[in-house]
Design brief:
The complex is a heterodimer of chains A (154) and B (181). With 154 residues, chain A is of the alpha+beta class. Helices cover 39% and strands 23% of the residues of chain A. Chain A has a five-stranded antiparallel sheet with strand order 1-5-2-4-3. The N terminus of chain A is likely disordered. A four-stranded antiparallel sheet of chain B has the order 2-3-1-4. The chains are: A alpha+beta (154), B alpha+beta (181).
């Protein structure tokens, strides 16, 4: 098996290759919570996709606390579309850091066409007093976010 | 080669060795092709390369496959065939594995592909949880676990032929589940 660093480098190349012209898959998206974010950055019309969160290594506990709260909100949702989103929503963590960053993979498979997977919008469903601290933790922990659309092979 | 000969353990090992080598790279591939032309007894006695797609832990794993762009459609079709074939298996464990087999192609915009026509197509196999019983290598998936689901030997070969010379490189990315499933 190749060294993990090489694996991640290859993945990074995979992403940057997809950046190119035309936007779409593999593009960098605004950090959640920043006003410039749009639903298109967090939608996966191809039916599956991923978000890569590059997180400061010393902030992983904060980031995981936010994702735990996100998981709770996903579990408790009564919204039918939200339930479908929750069923296909996974959060995975790279076992190794690379270039001073810890990578978390938000994997949506299947993704609900037209649904918004912006985690900040989900966090806004938390109790009002909790929302701002959650935003602040997420924003402080996150270096950048990258998006990748996927087409499932049936 | 008759099906009974094909079904022997020694031949199957040669096939697996070749497939892994194809995926690992050209240098190894040459060695494996040489092995494949050896007497099966010699080949089975020779040290076989480890199958990198036979995972040893059930931790979530992404297998990243870079494929020649001109082979991408065939490669996708091969995975469709594998999934459809194994889903028909009467072996419960094989069928259950097929149900968990999740292969995707990275959705790269047409404009980007047009600008970089030689850039490889990217496929991902999401192993979550990863199977430690079955390899994610197409060759044992086609030829070893329940080959009859793909039809006769020539039909199996037609599925395999779709991946010939397709793979540029692969990466295996170990992950840990944080939330979900």
């Amino acid at each position: 098996m190749r060294a993990a660093a090489a694996l991640l480098l290859a993945l990074s190349g995979l992403l940057s290759q997809a950046f190119g012209s035309g936007g779409g898959s593999g593009r960098q998206t605004p950090v959640p919570g920043v006003p410039a974010s749009s639903a298109a950055n967090y939608a996966f019309p191809s039916g599956a996709g991923m978000l890569f969160f590059y997180v400061k290594p010393d902030k992983t506990a904060d980031f995981e606390a936010v994702t735990a709260r996100l998981a709770d909100l996903l579990d408790r949702t009564d919204d039918p579309v939200g339930k479908q989103q929750a069923a296909g929503w996974r959060v995975l963590k790279s076992l190794e850091s690379t270039q001073g960053q810890t990578i978390y993979v938000f994997y949506f498979d299947p993704a609900v066409a037209g649904a918004d997977y912006d985690p900040v919008k989900w966090l806004s469903r938390a109790e009002a007093a909790d929302v701002q601290p959650l935003y602040a933790k997420l924003k402080d922990a996150t270096i950048r976010v990258e998006r990748m659309g996927l087409m499932r092979i049936r | 080669m008759t099906r009974s000969v094909w079904g022997s353990v020694s031949i199957q090992r040669v096939v697996v060795a070749v497939s892994v080598a194809v995926l690992v790279g050209a240098t190894t591939n040459v060695r494996a092709q040489q092995a494949a032309t050896q007497d099966p007894a010699q080949a089975s006695a020779a040290k076989q390369p480890e199958d990198p797609f036979k995972l040893t832990s059930d931790q979530p794993t992404l297998i990243i496959l870079q494929v020649k762009p001109e082979k991408a459609a065939d490669f996708a079709s091969m995975w469709e065939d594998i999934k459809a074939g194994l889903s028909k298996s009467q072996k419960p464990d094989v069928k259950a594995f097929a149900d968990t087999l999740k292969v995707s192609r990275v959705d790269i915009p047409e404009a980007t592909m047009a600008a970089q026509p030689s850039a490889p197509a990217i496929f991902l196999i999401r192993c979550d949880p990863a199977s430690t019983q079955f390899s994610y290598n197409p060759v044992p998936l086609i030829y070893t676990y329940d080959p009859d689901v793909f039809g006769k030997r020539e039909d199996q070969d037609k599925v395999y032929d779709k991946m010939k010379d397709a793979l540029v490189s692969y990466n295996i990315w170990k992950l840990k589940k944080v939330i979900g499933g």
